[in-house]
Amino acid sequence: MADKKSSEKSSASPVLSKSGEQTTPAKKPQALTLRAKAGDDMPMTKAKATTRASINSALVVNAYQTNIMGGDVDLDGLVTNMQVNFKAVSDGDMSTMEAMLVGQATALQTMFTSLAMRAASQEYLNQYQTYMALALKAQAQSRATISALVDLKYPRQATFVKQANISNGHQQVNNGAVSGQSEQPHARVGDSQTEPNKLLECQNHVDEQFLQSTSKVKQVMPL
Questions:
Q1: pLDDT tens for residues 126-143?
Q2: Is 181 a domain residue?
Q3: Cα first-last separation, the chain
Q4: Are 58 and 101 in a shared domain?
Q5: Is 34 inside a domain boundary?
Q6: For residue 59, is it within any domain?
């Protein structure tokens, strides 16, 4: 449920109490108050609220916290609290994020301990493997959370190394192959081209010798 309020006055109409005095009805905790800017109608106000990070996160938190604090949490208070956290992070204050990671790591460690103890008390292999797998997942998530906390608290410093040019004057940089290696492919190509020529010369020489021997045989043996 969303109530529209202008920046100057509330849209809630006063009612008469038993004593006859005018009083403003109490706001419902789960009612989200939207403040419209000048010139914006209700559809535009809702469209802007739909993509607002503080409202989105407050709605998700409210949906999952009902078994923690109950269903009477002030939704507008959640939105305001998220805006305060956003402002702190924007100003460089990461204390809230650090506390959140410490709490998550501790909660995950507690889950690991509970699941590991349940696994140890199981008699059958299937139940033991199920609880132990869940315990190890909680342990891995706790370790990852601690690693994220360390990176947040002590960020890694990037190292930049500058290259010094010692020699003076113009420099020539050859990005090709190393000297001595570039000539080898050409030599191999030349070898591959001369090999057939050598074979052809040998074949021609053999053919000439064969023809000469054949002619001599014909001269010795008359027909």
A1: 999 999 999 999 999 999
A2: no
A3: 125
A4: no
A5: yes
A6: yes
Dihedral (CA of 84, 86, 87, 89) sign: positive
Distance between alpha carbon 57 and the CA centroid of its chain, in Å? 20
3-state secondary structure at position 206: helix
Residues 110 and 80: beta-carbon distance below 8 Å: no
Domain closes at, from 69, 93, 117: 93
Which residues fall within 8 angstroms of residue 48, CB to CB, at 6 or more apart?
40
Structural domain of 146: 94-155
**Count of structural domains, the chain:** 2
- Residue-wise pLDDT tens digits, 35-94: 888 888 889 989 988 999 999 999 999 999 988 988 889 999 999 999 999 999 999 999
**Geometric angle at alpha carbon 211, from 207 and 215, rounded to 5°:** 170
In single-letter form, the type of residue at position 132 comes to M
Token output for 108: 């995950």
Task: Name the amino acid, one letter, at 122.
Answer: Q
pTM of the model: 0.55
**Helix intervals (H) in the chain:** 42-50, 53-64, 75-90, 95-120, 125-153, 183-220
In sequence order, what are the residues at sequence separation of 6 or more whose Cβ sits closer than 8 angstroms to the Cβ of residue 45?
4, 34, 35, 36, 37
